[in-house]
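User:
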Amino acid sequence: MSKTLDILQIAPRIPWPVTDGSAIGIYHITRAVAARGHRVTFVAYAERDAPEHAAGDMASFCDLEIVVHDTRNSPARVLRNLFSDLPYPISKYQSSAMFARLDALCARRHFDIMHVDHAQMAAYGRYVHEKYGIPYVLREHNFETTIYRRHAERARLLPLRWYFGLQAARLLRYETREVAVPDVVAAITREDATEIARARGAGEDGNEARIMVIPAGVDCAAVRPSSAEPDPAHVVIVGPLVWAPNADAATWFADEIWPRIAAAEPAARCTVAGLGPPRRLRARETARLRFPGFVDDYETLLRSATVMAVPLRIGGGMRVKLLEFFARGKAVVSTGIGAEGNAARADREYLRADTAADFAEAVLLLLRDEARRRALGMAARALVEREYDWTRIGAQFEMAYLAAIA
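Assistant: Predicted structure:
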C-alpha cells in the first residue's frame, strides 16, 4: 500500500529476548509491520530493575515507550484478587501509569490505528478507542478463558479446581465484554475465532466479519535447518516454566513419559529448558534429565536436539515455538493441544501422542529411525514456508488495520 500508517501498539511486555511464544508473536508482528513501511509507537511494561538492553534491537524499527510496572505473580496479589470481580491474570496488568502515558501520547500524536496485544491489555484498548476514537485491532494471542477451563479440568486438588473455575468464569465475563469493543479482533486460530464469535454474539448482527484468523509465524529466512548433526538420542523441551501450562507439561513428561523412554533407551537424555523451573522439577534432575532454567545459547541447544517434544495438556491459541521447530526441520512429537491451531497434520509433519505410553513410544520411534525424522522435518519445513512466514503475516495485519479503519 502507498499510505504510511501511524500505529499505536500496546503490549503487556517488551518482547525480548525473543525465546518464548508470546515474545516471538509480538516482536515479529511489530517488525513485519514496520518492514512494510509503517510507523509503530510501541508501548509496553518493563520492571523497574530491567537492564537497558532489555529491548534488544526494537528501537531500530519502532518508537519505544516503556512504562515501569511490576507484573510478576505474588501470593499477596492472588489473595487480594479473591475479593475482586476482575480475573487475576488481568488485574496484575492494571496501572494508572499506563493510562497516563497513553493520554500523553494521544495528546501529541495522531494515530491512524491502534493494535493491542493480548486480552490483558484490552482495557487500555477500550479506553483509547472510546476517548480518542482511534480504530482498534485486538490481537488475541489466546482466548484466555479456554486456558483456565483446561486448568480446572486438570487440577487434582479441589481448592485448585475451584480457583481455576472461578478465574475461568471471571475471564469469560471479561473477554465477552472486551472482544465486543474492537473494530477487528485478530484471532490466532480458528478455534479461538469460534470462541470469540460466540462471545461477541456473531451471527446476530453480522459482526462475524470483524473477526479475522491471522496465525502466528516464523522468520523462514533466519530460522533454517542446520547442517550440523544433532546429538545422539537427545530429547529437548523448551518453554518458560513460570507459565503454568509449561510447568504442567514438564511435570507430566518427567513423571510419566521420561521413565518409559529412559528404561527403553539407555543412551537417551533429555533437556527441559525454560525460565523458572519449580523446585519439584529440580528435585527430579539426574545426569540424563536436566532442568537448566533459562538457556543463553538457545540456538546450540536446538541444534543438538534429535527430537523436540511438546507435551502440553493445557493451553489455547497456537504454539509459536512449534513453528520454529518446524522451520528448523526438527522431528516433533506433540499432544493434540500442543499442535492445536496450525495446519500441521499428524504423521505427516509431526507425530501426535496424547497418552504417556503413546508419547514415549513416538519419541523412541524417532530416536531410532533417522529416515523418519528427516521425512517429518522436511515436510514441516515445507509447511511453514508455504503458510507461516512473517512477511505473509505482516501483510495480513495490514489488511486487518485497513478493515478496522474502513
